[in-house]
Amino acid sequence: MKKFYSFLIFNCLVFLLSAQIPFENKTLVDKEIGKYMKMINFNVNPNTLNYDLKYQRLDVEVDPAVLWISGSVTSHFLPNQNMSNIYFDFTNTIPVSQVVYHGQNLNFQQLSTKELKIDFPATIPANSMDSLTVHYSGVPDNSGRPSFFVGTKYGFPTLSTLSEPYGAQNWFPTKQSMNDKIEGFDFKITTPDQYSVAANGKLMSEIVLPGNKKKTFWRTQYPMAAYLAAISVGNFTKTNDFMGNSSFPYVNYIYPDTYANPAVVANLEWTKTVMQIFENHFGPYPFSNEKYGHMEFNLPGAAMEHQTMSSMDSFPRAAIVHELAHQWFGDKITCGAWNDIWLNEGFATFSEHVIYEKNMMTHQEFMNHLLNQMNAITNLPNGSVYVNDSNLGNIPVVFSGRLSYAKGGFCLRMMKWILGDDVFYQALRDYTSNPSFAYKYAKTEDFKNQLLVSTGKDFTEFFNDWIYGQGHPTYEIRWNQPIANQEVKFLVSQTQSDPSVSFFEMPLPIKVIGTNGETAYLVLDHSSNNQFFSKTLTFQVASVEFNYEYQIIEKNSTVIHDLALATDFVNKVEVALFPNPVKNEINFKGISKVSEYEIFSADGKLIKSGTYKPFAFINVAGMTKGVYFIKINGKKLKFVKD
């Protein structure tokens, strides 16, 4: 994603976060809302569903001193059905001069819907690879959200592109739907010979041409979403090095005045450390056959994870971390719809956690960072990580720093807490290497299913509450140790900030501190409200801490030493249903009054509701086999229909 960074430098380049959104190392929401307006209006263009775009060759001439582009794009495509015409996403403000197909010119239309419609002289049969070339010349379309920029920096002309989400169509004809990656892409960029060109992939050649011009040829052979194709043209200092566990090229194109800054050079060198940490946690760098690197561009405060070569206006460490993480989460695996943007941004935000904790921050600094994040996430009582269809046109919701970025990242931290580090990171490596998603697209349900395959744990309830649901819990934890040096009793209750979630099932992190400094770490598997727990200890408890390392999201929770808890504990009967699994009839213990109930399927659909009478039962004989949840008497209980 395009990010805008504002930093204060603290103690060895630890970057504090903005006051308005304290967890953010960018002000994307403030600066991008107006520019993204009306851009995210579809995930898939239905007119482009009848072919697979296999390869594109961009052969154009540009000059950083002029807002202009001229040249051609050749596209190779594989029809999945018989085709009499083909559509590309392309602006109607740059005139197309001709479309050449097997040596002949084709009829075409540039539509107001930013589509180029091309008619074939005869029907092309399905599964028959074909190609055509579009010639065009004019001023790139910078209406709405700009994607093609010219300007000056340090007194030199600059040119750069940034096409996310649907800006690629503003400067070359392509296919932008979130279901088809371009499997190979060649950039052949002609410029005045004093400039250099940076782009995705591997540098193939730089050829001097007559008339003081130069043609630069970059090639990427990894599948790539259209919005990740990019160029940057200017006066650069070029660095060539190696990085990563398999020692692949590390290439940077930096403006000379920027490269004269020792802090920038130090941060570029430090990127090698980040790469190694990420490879150890997420799997091998996805584009090692080509390179990783940075191309500086002249968009003040911006950064963008262009595949194999992140574009950046400056080089603070937090920005370096975020954009590098996107090479796995966003580039290798791209969110399959803008509804699932957290699969890009939440994962990159969690990746910041990894580096902050393991390399950049002291333990206390990292705890402060997590607290700032959690406070920002819980600043409002509602909002979901997953973007509902009704909100796709609401840009502040799609690119919500609070939800898509911070809460998405913190949800991953909670999954890590539930699974443990080793199991969680193995699941991430399984996800990034799964051929169903690698170099393709993935949606939220895909990641949830991967967790089940990798860990054996069903995260359906977690995703329903934390990803699709809204809000957060507040806990009240009462404790007492009735007999010295023996069992500690806990009574845990929960309230929810938004009615979309009736109960957050979570293992709760508890730290118990003894009168002589002893320490014990407990987990309370909180599955119903007003739930009692008993934990055996061998020392006298002085205090209890909850969420001691911000393992989970919560707000304003309290821990109370309740001396009366010892008396009440033995008289409390925990609500439970039986039998479980159930064939025909559900009954309960612990419910002594008439109570309303609702039964939901595992995906949250209401199946049945009614009134339960004590000593009676609820008939479920007609329900299909599976996992269900029943809400009754303020509690949410899980059962299996056999």
What distinguishing features does this structure have?
disordered N terminus, six-stranded mixed beta sheet, globular, single chain, 12 helices, Immunoglobulin-like, 22% helix, eight-stranded mixed beta sheet, 4 domains, 39 strands
Task: Explain what this protein looks like in three dimensions.
This protein is of the alpha+beta class and 642 residues long. The protein has 4 domains: 3-39 and 335-468, Neutral Protease Domain 2 (Neutral Protease, domain 2), CATH 1.10.390; 47-325, Immunoglobulin-like (Sandwich), CATH 2.60.40.1730; 473-569, Aminopeptidase N, middle-beta domain (Immunoglobulin-like), CATH 2.60.40.1840; 576-641, Immunoglobulin-like (Sandwich). The protein has 12 helices and 39 strands. An 8-stranded mixed beta sheet has the order 8-7-11-5-4-14-17-16, with no helix packed on it. Strands 1-22-23-21-20-19 form a 6-stranded mixed beta sheet. A 4-stranded antiparallel beta sheet has the order 12-13-18-15, with no helix packed on it.
Brief overview, please?
With 642 residues, the protein is an alpha+beta fold. It contains twelve helices and 39 strands.
